[in-house]
Amino acid sequence: MSDFPNVQLHVVTGKGGTGKSTVAASLALAHASKGKTVLLCEVEGRQGIAQMFDVPPLPYEERLLAKHTEHGAGDVYALAIDAEAALLEYLAMYYRLGRAGKALDRFGVIDFATTIAPGVRDVLLTGKVYEAAKRNSRNKGARQYDAIVLDAPPTGRIAQFLNVNHELAGLARMGPIKSQADTVMTLLTSPRTAVHLVTVLEEMPVQETIDGVAELRENGLPVGGVVVNLVRPQDLDEEARNALLDGTVDEAALGKALGSSGIDATPELVHSLVAEGRDHAERRRLEDSQRTLVEAIGVPTYELGKLAGGVDLGGLYELAESLCEQGLA
Amino acid sequence: MTRSGARVGPMTAHHTPTPHLDVDALLDDPRRRIIVCCGSGGVGKTTTAASLALRAAERGRRVVVLTIDPARRLAQSMGIDALDNVPRPVRGTTGALDAMMLDMKRTFDEVVESQATPEKAQQILSNPFYIAVSSSFAGTQEYMAMEKLGQLDKDARASGRWDLIVVDTPPSRSALDFLDAPERLSSFLDGKFMRLLLAPARGPARLMTAGFNMVTKAVTTIIGGQVLHDMQAFVSAFDTLFGGFRQRAQRTFELLQADGTSFLVVAAPEPDALREAAYFVERLSEEQMPLAGLVVNRASVDPEVGLSAAAAMSGYERLRDSSDDASRMAAGLLRLHADRKLAVERETRLRGRFATAHPDVATVVLPALPTDVHDLDGLRRIGALLSGDGAA
Q1: In chain B, residues 74-113 whose CB comes closer than 8 Å to chain A
Q2: How many domains does chain B have?
Q3: What is the pLDDT of residues A230-259, one digit of tens each?
Q4: pTM (2 decimals)?
């Protein structure tokens, strides 16, 4: 059973290097495995989805990314949202600005609006996500999605990115852009949306996550869960880790145990394994103290293990399964 | 701390050996005036910049380090947690080291104040459009980091207070943003659209075409007339500063191309980070900006014992369900060993791929440390590792 049964829009953020795009992709696959038709969006122009799924760069167009293989599962579509294309589409949809659209481009207005004008870019990007979530008659024959996963900008910028209203407040106090922003905000602040934060168990990312949650709450944006990514293997219990840290490991007994598994346990090997174990135990101790901080945030947390061989397509499905088991999807 | 002399995976994935980056030679060279640390977010740029600055200072340079977004405890230990946008001496080192954290908005305000009459400056600073651009425009941080670098360089030349400036770059997803931001901002300030906004006040009649009217009308419809009005006020107040801004951006760009400047690209041994590093290396060479080398951070340390990942895994499978403590510990340690061997193999392959495509880029590989760095001792240790100093 999912912890977020009524959520349609899942926004995934995280500090650089924590694997937020990986988590977003896995979450999309996880929802699809539950029979949903899913749209996975990216907004930073990095073509991260294409790289993860090993497909050609995505255009500004919903493309089938992962077709269901089992009965009862859904498909995943992908969309790389581009602010310029979104603006032209918006103009075409709402204003029928055929020639004027071109003139706008020629005068550098499109460029201005999408790169410089503060807030406008974010309204366009979130506006497209909104359009996909709430398909209306203007976009005829468009696909309906049960779930949308947005690979969003990093934690440090997420509240600003989603709070499009506020960003525009000092500028556009009225006019269509303002009402567009208002409409988008009603979805983003509703229980249909959840913002999930990805972190690793290190000081800076955890601090940013705590700050990010506080900022989201201040802005009335619904916080979902915290996904703790790249967690180290948990094979050594506390007793073993303490022995490693205290330097009280019985290397002779360890050597014997290793030998019984058919490994040529030279003293050098045993010594090296113990040293590796000590590094690990030291890291784990830090991780545990950070985990306490994450738990204190008071939102559901999910843990994903570090895949030793790196994340490939198979790895994404593995992570998706783990997210399903833990109830994020 | 890791074992002394810890070595990181052999470079067996390709045939030409990667040239080694001699960090101490870089820091000691008196002609070297600026070192820029760049790379994608989350790869340890700030820590690398701070470590290099501390090491250079303790080797006799007079150094100032400009950081963008340091971890709180690191900032505290360097005494730069109070944002006041000026360099402060770092305590706890015998070297001459000043440090500062960038205040983006204040830097922008100071530029405006230095360029305009007090009256005009006030007019600009209180314009809603300016406030939005200076505090939230994506790219302002990059631009202001460059601006601050220019100021520090000028200050260093005039006062002789520093002979080396180490700069950290903003934590953008793309390392290239740093180079593109000044161009973007100055092309905005100098763009067609800005000229268009100014046109009614002073423009030649030929601009007042049907196209222009259509555009003004469309802009008014979409964003509202009041925004257009604010923008026009901002632009006409800013008009006299355009030239100044463009010149400053140009000067900073030239500073980055100068002989005394070196770029260090920082990456983690991950596909994304190395891909960004590759883009950056290519871009630097296009712009004729001097690249000193690549720092690969957080590399897995090769345990250097003969046991392969596969052999360790099979031992793990055999022991994992044992009930006695020694066997369970043995199983856990074998699993860790297997993971580490796999990680080393993978990272070596990734770095090998980078090195094959960019064989001339001098590289130094930094092992992952079991603990976080948040004090000067930690920075010293990183500095020593960067320099391949065995005493680390």
Answers
A1: none
A2: 1
A3: 998 888 999 999 999 999 999 999 999 999
A4: 0.86
